[in-house]
Amino acid sequence: MDSRSVTEDTQDFSVTSLGSQLDQITNITTTLNYFIAGIAAISLLVGAVGIANTMYMSVMERTKEIGTLKALGTTRREILELFIAESALIGLVGGFIGVSLGFLLSGIIGFILSIVLTDIPASTYISPFMVIASLIFAVVMGVASGI
């Protein structure tokens, strides 16, 4: 007898194991991590090019100042150190902006997750080590871009 057009050959349900669900979640998380890493790499490249361009324009606009400094006895190394310090400062400011936006976005995501996932406690944690490492990395990238 045919009940609701379902025969014994028709599969009207499926069974998935906890292991296969865990594998799917792991695959999705890995893909998401690669996507975020790609966005971060593009952002890093854009930031590095921006700092390099800013420093190039700074040198071009300050040729008279550089000439005056050289006339006063400043060595090429000291002038280079001046521009490297400026590019490090630009990187540090960019790092602070990035870390601040990260804190803000993390808080917003944590708030949204606490509303959406009422059964699961959701909280965000930002490691102080990662904040310091991010700022150091921003300064290093600023210096590398300024050279």
3D architecture notes:
- With about 150 residues, the chain is mainly α.
- The protein has a domain of about 100 residues.
- The chain is built from four helices and no strands.
- It is elongated.
Features:
147 residues; mainly alpha; 4 helices; elongated
Q: How much of the polypeptide forms β-strand, as a percent range?
A: under 5%
Overall pLDDT level: 85
H/I helix tally? 4
Strand element count: 0
Strand pairing plus helix content: what structural class? Answer: mainly alpha
- In the predicted model, the low-confidence regions spanning at least 5 consecutive residues are none
- Main sheet specs: none
Compact overview of the structure:
This protein has four helices and no strands.
List the topology elements:
Elements: H1 18-61, H2 63-71, H3 76-116, H4 128-146
Helix pairs in contact: 1-3, 1-4, 3-4
